[in-house]
Write a structure and sequence with these properties.
Two copies of one chain form a homodimer. Chain A has about 500 residues and is α/β, with parallel strands linked by helices. Chain A has helices at about 1-5, 20-35, 75-85, 105-120, 160-165, 165-170, 190-200, 215-225, 240-250, 260-270, 275-290, 305-315, 325-335, 360-365, 385-390, 395-420, 435-445, 455-470, and strands spanning about 10-15, 40, 50, 50-55, 65-70, 90-95, 125, 130-135, 140, 155, 175-180, 205-210, 235, 270-275, 300, 345-350, 375-380, 425-430, 450.
């Protein structure tokens, strides 16, 4: 698996100089990512493809590339795989579709593909996938150029789209993938293999799984159970409803199982289950950024009653508790809370004469509250308001922007320091956009700030759940029923179809 | 109620030339909104406040203003209200807190406040509120400057924050409030009054309610029932969990009831219930923008299997159905779908040689599918990819940006036209940000595009539910238990405390 995510050289089939070819787009993405090793396009008549020297035949290549990527018409795939085998290439990413997922003839073709791969000892990612993106290695074989930084989320996905089409989504949150695998039809390399790789990958702090149907149930559970104690795993399963099952089936030919079977499997493995793509990455964000809480008791700090009440309600619905504050905390807080505010939980300040109290004194007191395990803070201040205040305080107009930025940087820095020094998780929520400087400043410093209290509460609940499961995964490893009991990798020709 | 949302002139208590005073911030917001009528600051010693001529006493004002706004220390409110009454002012917004919501002495003060108001026939909004924002009238009495356009969402909120702190949130979606009321402690004007106003307001296409606890249950249900047949109402209730109830109580002193009581009340009224702030405005977005569907059958159009499967699953979980396509539709679609794609539902194109098919031919066919009531489309194309395609097609570099914008404008225009001409709802989902030009172009043309399939599915379910309830609200108007049976407005001194 290592070479497929960290190749030194790549043979590329299916790119041309025409933008209408999908392969061309994939090679452009690879170039845009800044891949540093040699790339060898194979083309039957062009001498150069996208500025690179092209070869008529894979056998003509000056070296044996670590990996071949194929974006060819279905009918050409198996013969090309055969040629790769003869050349000595042992890792192949097959992007082309038209195999098991279309049924009929496609099933026969995929069986043939697997036989060729076995004969040559080739490990295949795909077919019907978008390959792999390892941004720490400037590798991106997918359709869409990578935007944003390399990050700490490792992804193994039965959907290629969820690899490529979330680059931008994650970048807006200041997040990114460490390595992301699109496993496609899983003719050979599957979710379990990808998960094993990510468990060992030093850039990966949390593993995300997008699942339409699991083929090797027992191996999946055993692998996950061995990973969870040292790295959290979050899974989104979309095959649980009838409509989702049918759609997944026509997508990758995977056979989905009843929702409660998967629920049980996740629970046994210690995997955190997400119910949407949003949750999948919210949970990864919290789990990859924050220390784990010792329990489920949350203290809420807010400037506003409504967002405080909504957060309290959201915490309650997510199974979290809001303890009463200790006398000690109440005493320390009192000087900072006006009489219109509330020193219960949520701590509702309503208004602070000195805005800095909200970033230094008050969270500093609350994070030490021994009755609470997590501090949840509502962040609301628009840059506009900060600037307005500075203007009114007599700051010269030309200095207002700089001073506002400086002030907000200091405020965000103070909050981030609290997380580092306290060892307790601190989570933010807001209705401001992620590009508001006061929010961006927190996120860039590793403090997750979620859109709305519900997302924050569910992310905290995921932290709590992971802390509990890590220490005591439920029950033993029993996976029966639809998955069979074999730990051996079964023959998978037509499996599940 | 009309004058309080549409005043021609305002007396303003509590603003000074010091930014640390909350009142100053509110007056600055009012000025920033561009309020066109006269504003009279009352100040005990300043001659001018924020550039406006100030008056020592309300009795000195040259006219009787339509509305007075008070942002004064608690102890000064009642005597000032008395003075307003003597002046002849009949609408007062009391922003000041420290009344019923703090208990004890505050309860006594609020009772006194109500008595003064009755004596003079004054209608009071608040206390402990942020007043009203009517952007069609450039009116904003709240703490935070209004950002973004005036819109079609009317809000009545028991939280002031949810009025002010969502301006920016809505603006990012291209949405805005028509008029938004923060009702605070509801000493006089309450949710029901605000709802009645919004029902008649011609700028309001949908009513949003943020609820911590309802005082006049019967009146609430009757009013909502009379509104729903001609205008949708969406409610978020945060008092349903134990934690939410306690937080709401300390916020406005409202008594929350068991969750199922509220659930029943919403159902009887034909109100759509939202479970988060995000849902509240997602539902309003869909209900205010789209024609109502005839049923719950959805057809999904996607470029990608994973997002398609996730959308199918989300639809299933939201109680929507995915019908099989009719033979007629399959026949018309076939020329546009490559062999790797799927002409079942979701329609998964995987790849289109001509990207315009995705915006013209294919949705044009699908929206005519008689077996479906709603068309749900996955939008993914980043501007970068469009530009890359144009570059490769030989468009001169200096024209690429303009041509990309033009192409995307045409594509977005084609989709928006489909909604207008078909009379069927068309909803989008994406993982791109709302600022991506291809997404922004759709939203600006009135096509809701949600972040992720789950939000889209739930918004469609809200459309379906509203269509069903509008035609047949469940059962008769029975509201018993905690709310009593009186339709008369009860005396509310200390109610619910």
């Amino acid at each position: 698996m290592y070479k497929i995510a960290n190749p030194r050289s790549i043979a590329f089939f299916g790119a041309s100089n025409h933008i209408t070819a999908m392969g061309t787009n994939l090679l452009l993405s690879l170039q845009a990512a800044g891949f540093e090793g040699p790339v060898y396009p194979i083309h039957y008549k062009e001498d150069r493809v996208l500025g690179l020297e092209a070869y008529r035949d894979v056998l003509d290549l000056p070296e044996i590339p670590d990996v071949a990527v194929m974006v060819l018409p279905t009918r050409m795939v198996n013969s090309t795989l055969e040629a790769c085998g003869r050349k000595g290439i042992r890792k192949v990413v097959i992007v082309s579709g038209g195999f098991k997922e279309v049924g009929g003839e496609g099933i026969v073709l995929e069986r043939e593909l697997v036989e060729i791969a076995r004969r040559y000892g080739i490990r295949v990612l795909g077919p019907n996938c978008l390959g792999v993106a390892n941004l720490h290695r400037h590798l991106n074989t997918t359709f869409i150029p990578y935007e944003g930084p390399a990050g700490f989320i490792g992804l193994a996905s039965q959907s290629g789209s969820f690899v490529t089409q979330l680059f931008d989504y994650l970048a807006r949150l200041g997040l990114g993938f460490s390595t992301a695998f699109s496993v496609g039809n899983e003719a050979d390399i599957d979710l379990v293999d990808a998960m094993e790789y990510l468990a060992l990958c030093p850039h990966t702090r949390v593993i995300a799984l997008y699942i339409e149907g699991i083929r090797r149930g027992r191996a999946f559970v055993e692998t996950a159970r061995s990973i969870v104690p040292h790295k959290p795993v979050v899974a989104l399963y979309v095959g649980g409803s009838e409509t989702g099952r049918q759609a997944g089936f026509s997508h990758t030919g995977a056979l989905a199982g009843p929702d409660d079977l998967y629920e049980g499997m996740f629970r046994q493995s210690g995997i955190i289950r997400a119910r949407s793509v949003t949750e999948l990455f919210d949970f990864c964000w919290a789990l990859g950024s924050l220390p784990l809480p010792k329990g489920r008791r949350v203290v809420i700090q807010t400037h506003s009653g409504g967002p405080g009440a909504a957060a309290a309600d959201a915490c309650g619905r997510s199974g979290l508790e809001l303890p009463a504050l200790s006398d000690d905390t109440v005493e320390k807080l009192t000087p900072f809370v006006p009489h219109t505010g509330s020193v219960s939980n949520p701590v509702d300040l309503t208004f602070t004469k000195n805005p800095n109290d909200f970033y230094w004194s008050i969270p500093g007191i609350l994070i030490q509250e021994e009755r609470a395990d997590v501090l949840l803070i509502y962040f609301l201040t628009p840059t506009q308001v900060v600037k307005r205040a500075l203007e009114q305080m007599g700051v010269p107009p030309e200095q207002v922007s700089d001073q506002a930025q400086k002030l907000m940087d200091e405020q965000c820095g103070a909050i981030a320091r609290l997380v580092r020094t306290s060892g307790k998780p601190l989570v933010g929520y807001t209705f401001r956009g992620p590009d508001d400087p006061s929010i961006r400043g927190l996120m860039d410093r590793g403090v997750p700030v979620f859109q709305g209290p519900e997302r924050a509460a569910r992310a905290i609940a995921a932290l709590v759940k992971h802390a509990e499961r890590r220490d005591a995964p439920e029950g033993d490893c029993h996976v029966k029923g639809a998955f069979g009991g074999a730990t051996e990798r079964p023959r998978r020709d037509g499996d599940g179809v």
